[in-house]
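$ ./design --mode recover --in tokens.txt
reading tokens...
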């Protein structure tokens, strides 16, 4: 047995960063064979085919087969894991409605193709931005597929938040736990340290000794730095984050498949938890149990945190309303 993994936009930079790590076993482990389907638009087929040749030259023992196609029905045939990476970026002079319409033309048909062709237990991770609303469009178009099978990537934001805390506290990043992202994968996202720990100790206590006024530091330094990290990387590197996005995608899917020992973050379809309108794809603190994401419920949310969560959720509602107005839902 092997797992069939479909990657859209596979000829792009994030797709390229994903392929070789998946083939090496970094996603599902060293005991799981994989079959890769690389979906590209016609203009990107050459890049995807080049990556396929490199995969062949890598002589990966876990890689059974690679197929490159521009046909969504072929790409999602029997697919177990779908990584929807390819998306239309905002171009010069593009209004938000234009961006949503362009991506609706991508993710709607992909959702329909998943419903028609993928494995019954398919799991879908949307990486291409605006990820939350793109996931909403894909799920709405996938008739018969449970909405719980569609998720949006917010693990990159969480990884960034944990890394910033680790750097500030001068501790290993794996000692920083429970830093969930709430809301949208956008500048309104809320990285929440209310319940965070470092080596089992409350993060707030550890921060007080270093930054003094913790609320002020969170407002002026930490939250803006996490939210704007992508822009910072573009300014420094000259192009968007690629390897870290691919790494977060692997983290998200690996935890979804194999389970989590603690909280993490994922954009999942709201069932009304924490007052988030039902049906929105919103990032919550989650755990993966028996292959299903479950929102961590019962957490205390302060008034300060509630304001930030509500602001990000309001943006998601605006995006959903705009998509509805375009006839995409």
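writing sequence...
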């Amino acid at each position: 047995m092997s797992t069939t993994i479909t990657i859209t936009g596979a000829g792009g930079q994030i797709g390229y960063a994903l392929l070789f790590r998946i083939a090496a076993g970094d996603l599902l482990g060293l005991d799981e064979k994989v079959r890769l389907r690389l979906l590209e638009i016609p203009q990107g087929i050459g890049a995807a085919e080049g990556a396929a040749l490199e995969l062949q030259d890598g002589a990966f023992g876990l890689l059974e087969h690679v197929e490159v196609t521009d046909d969504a029905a072929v790409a999602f045939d029997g697919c177990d894991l779908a990584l929807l990476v390819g998306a239309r970026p905002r171009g010069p002079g593009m209004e938000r409605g234009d961006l949503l319409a362009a991506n609706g033309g991508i993710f709607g048909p992909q959702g329909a193709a998943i419903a028609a062709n993928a494995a019954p237990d398919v799991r879908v991770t949307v990486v291409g931005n605006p990820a939350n609303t793109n996931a909403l469009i894909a799920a709405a178009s996938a008739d018969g597929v449970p909405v719980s099978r569609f998720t949006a990537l917010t693990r990159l934001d969480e990884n960034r938040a944990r890394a910033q805390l680790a750097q500030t506290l001068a501790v290993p990043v794996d000692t920083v736990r429970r830093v969930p992202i709430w809301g949208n994968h956008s500048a309104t996202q809320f990285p929440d340290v209310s319940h965070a720990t470092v080596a089992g100790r409350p993060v707030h206590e550890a921060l007080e000794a270093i930054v003094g006024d913790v609320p002020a530091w969170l407002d002026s330094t930490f939250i803006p730095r996490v939210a704007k990290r992508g822009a910072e990387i573009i300014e420094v590197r000259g192009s968007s984050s690629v390897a870290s996005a691919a790494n977060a995608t692997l983290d998200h899917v690996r935890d979804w498949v194999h389970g989590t020992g603690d909280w993490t973050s994922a954009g999942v379809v709201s069932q009304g938890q924490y007052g988030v309108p039902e049906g929105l794809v919103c990032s919550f603190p989650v755990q993966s149990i028996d292959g299903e994401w479950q929102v961590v419920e019962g957490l205390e949310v302060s008034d300060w945190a509630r304001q930030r969560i509500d602001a990000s959720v309001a943006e998601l509602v605006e995006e959903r309303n705009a998509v509805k107005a375009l006839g995409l839902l």
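exit 0
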